[in-house]
Each structure stands twice: as structure tokens, then as C-alpha cells.
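Thanks for the sequence, V.! I ran PKS/mFAS DH domain-containing protein right away. Repeating your input here for the record:
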Amino acid sequence: MSHSEKKILNEREIIFNIDTNDEEFLYLTGHVINGKNLFPAMGYIFYIWEMFASLNKKEYTEMPIIFEDINFIRATVLTQQNKIELTFSIQKGSNRFEIIEGHTTIVTGRIRIPTSDENTRISANSTKYAVDGEMNNKDIYKELRLRGYQYSGIFRGLNRVSVTKSNGSIAWAFNWIAFMDSMLQMMILGQNTRDLLVPTRICKLTIDPKYHLHLIQNTSINNRQLPVNYYKHLNAITSGGIEIYGVVATFIPNRLKTVNIVLEEHTFVAHRDLESSISLQNAIRMSIHLALECCNMLNVKIIEFLDTDDKLTSEDLNSPLINKILSDLPQIRHETKLVTNHKNLQNISLPDNISVTEMTKLSKNENCLMVFCFNILKKNKEELYKQLLSLLMPQGFLLTLEESTDCEYSYLKKNKLNIIIERQINNKKLLLLRKTQNVEKNQYHVVHVNNYDFTWVDTLKSIINMQNKSDSDKNIILVAEKNFESGLLGLVNCLRKEPGGETIRSVFIQDSKAPAFSLHEPLYMKQLLLNLPINVIRSGNVWGSYRHFPLSALEPKFVQNAYIKQKVQ
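Predicted structure:
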């Protein structure tokens, strides 16, 4: 350590200032455990060793050393904003040392020079390296990362470890702290648990620097590494001239990442039902999910249009709700535009990914998945219909919220729009509309799915292969009937993500009284002409699908007892 980074109070007490912004200590930022940048346990050992050598008027690389009864009482967190100040002291006579941060003791132990007759080195030949089956550097640090250790830089020193976790090799990066820390990592890997462990005590640690550096010099210049051995039955780790005995590691709770957990229920919902009411949030959610399901895309653009005739306030806008629904889908990248000429809505506060613009400023190729609007069926504006429909992609959707129950459906037929969803929301009606798809009944392959006879799998494979080779665009209809419990829906979702999977459709019959599936049956053919991937029919000839909706918030209740478990002592 440079003289500028330490303050000598007396020969047995020194204050070290450690700043990770300095080049000398920059490597310490690679020692991250449980999401925190911690000062390495072996860093305390190294600086006490360096200080003790200075007391004896020697270079630390020239002086063998023995540490005993080391206790790590508290970890030190490093930050780029603040320096840490550590006070190192060694008592005269007993050679007991103490390291203090602020006014708190964080490490204690004893240091001494080995006597001439002390030779307790474990033979390096007592364990042969296991060449059959090993973990490489990438495997090792993936496993450690899963346990909560996010090492980087020279703290990723383990090059390889045997599958038994008894031996391996450590890279020499001319850094004693990182090398000894890698030895402790070997011990952590050897524990038959994925709990997060940190060393809190070491009974004995010996360092013979001359012997260690001699072994280093005998290695290849381009591949400086030394073997490491972990003797689990002895609780000892050895590598080069360093031996560590009696490591005690303590469990600490893994720090959970702060994420927004989405709790949902998966339930059947009818597409067209004016008898029962549904919340606006759930109606919009099921509409967006259905649109994404049909188009199978990751980059989504949605427009909400407000006409000058719409008597709406900022509280009536659906854009923030649309943004929240799409934010619950981490794989979807989305852009939402609020298109309006309302001057009072031009300066409202909206999330960053919602922009406000005017119809005249939109491009001719918006290619939107969905356009949201209000009372469109009451407005006899042919030009407005053309404008809104021109904003959609070929398979896009138009969602309108109608205040009146008396809607002029003739406009739909005139503009070739099919009703996909029609639901009552209090005194309003929500309609999800889609351009009529050109689908004929002779454009289908029908495959009946069975839970007990899987010959249909080979049939499906051959049809998909044939279509991929011939570039055919015939829809493949997977039909599940006479069995209410089927994995059909999950299968369809997976198949549609595969190349050529966009032609996959499904009919799930959950009605024992429904007629057998046939392309000549109007009940099924009318639904298939909507060209939806998922079609579920329930009793009463009700068509719908299974959707995810947020769980209702739980209300806290008083209880008579509770269970508490203390994991850290």
C-alpha cells in the first residue's frame, strides 16, 4: 500500500484509507457478495501481514507467517462515494491484532513467525487431480452466482475444479488477496448446499511466501496457476505455500432482488357476453392479450384516439392502463401514442413511453397492433373510419368504448369489421373489432388431439413439415373434445412461436352437449372465420378463452399466533 493511503500513528497502529476510485484499489470492486461490494476477508489478513513484516524490518514476501484464532466479526461495505478508514493494530508481546472501522472492532486474531521446527505442510502429492470430469471457469462462477456470489475481475481466480470439489487450480494474478480469496471460494464450492455462506472464523492460516513464489516461477509464463486442494475431512485448504485450517462459514440470508411481482389468476372468460359485467381494466387486459396472441409480436405500437367531439377528461384516458398492462409483460417492447386535438389534454402528465400527438402528424405507415377510440359507432364519419383503419397493421384490432347500448352495427359490415369481443362495462359497452380475414373452410388441416393416444403427434409433424416445404398457408386446426382436461392451449402457445407456427389454430370443446367438431357445422365454422388462435367453447355455446387477470388484493386480518424462525445468530 502506498504511503499516501496510510497514516502511521505509531509502529504498532496504522490507519489505512481505502478508496475504490483509486487505481490501486479498483480491483476490489470485483468482490461482490449478495449484491454488496464487500472488503475481502483476506484483505485484512494481507495488510496485517504486511504491517507485521514492517515491524520486523522485513519485506512481507521474505517472511513466513502464521495466523491463529482469526475472527471476522463484521463485514465492511465498499462504496465509490466514500472512502473507508480501517485502523490496524498489533499488541506487543502477545502479537494479538485488531482491525477497527470507525469505533467498531471488525476483525481480531493472533499473528506470529513460525518456529524453525514447525513444518506442518500437507503434502501436495497426497491428492491426485481428478482428470475425469471438471468444471471450467465459466461453470464455476455460474454456480457461485446462483448462490449469491457475483465475483468479477481477478476474483474469478478458479480456473477449474473437479466434480468432487476436492481439487482444482487457481490463476496467479500477482495479487495475494485475490489468490487467497479464491482458496476460500474452493471451500464454498465444496459445501453441499446453495446457501449463501461467508467466513466468520479461521483457526489457522500459514503463508510461506518464498516457497509459494518458487512454485510460481516454475510455472509457464503464459499460464501462471497453482493446484488447490480441499480436504473436507480435515477442513483444510492448501495451494502453493498457503494453508488454511478450520474455516467456519456462517449462513446469511440471500438478498432478494427488488422486482414487481405479478400475481394473476388464469380463468375462462367469454368473448361476447352482455348479461354479466366486467371491469374496464380486465376487459382491456383480455383484449390486449388476445391481440398479442393473434399477432405473436414483440414490438408493439398502440394508439389511443380522442376526437374533438369526445367529451372526455384526462381521467377517462386508457393510455396509462394500456402502459401498465404491457409493462407486466417483460418480453414486450411497447410504444403508446395519444392522438388528440384536445388542447386541455396536450400538457397532461403521462408515463415516458406515452407520447401525445395529432392525427395530421402521424405517418402513413404506423402499422399499429391496436387503435383505441370512443363512441365510434355513433359517429357517421366515413373519413374517420378510413383514417383509423389505415393506422392498423393488416391483422390489427380496433377497440371502441361505446356509451350507448344502441350501437349502429351497419357500420361494421360496411367497413368489413368482425366483432371479436363484446362486453358490458357498467353502462358502457366495449367492442374489440378486427378486419375480416380471408379464410375458407377448404384452407384447413384438422388434427384431433387425444390425451391417451398420441398417434396424432406424428400426423401433426408430417403436416407441419409438408407445409414448410411447400410454403402452404393452410391453417392447422388442433381439436380437443370429449376431454375437459387437456394441455392443448399450452401446446398451441409453444407451437405458434416456432417457425411456421403462425398457421396453428385450436378448438377446445368444454361442453359435453356440443355437437362433434366438423367444418360443416355452422357453430364451429362461424368461429373459425374470426381466425383466432385459441377458441374455447363452454356450455350454452359460449365462445371464449383463458386469460390472466390480476388477483384481488388481500385484506389483512388479525390472527391468534404467528411463526418466526431466526436463521442468523
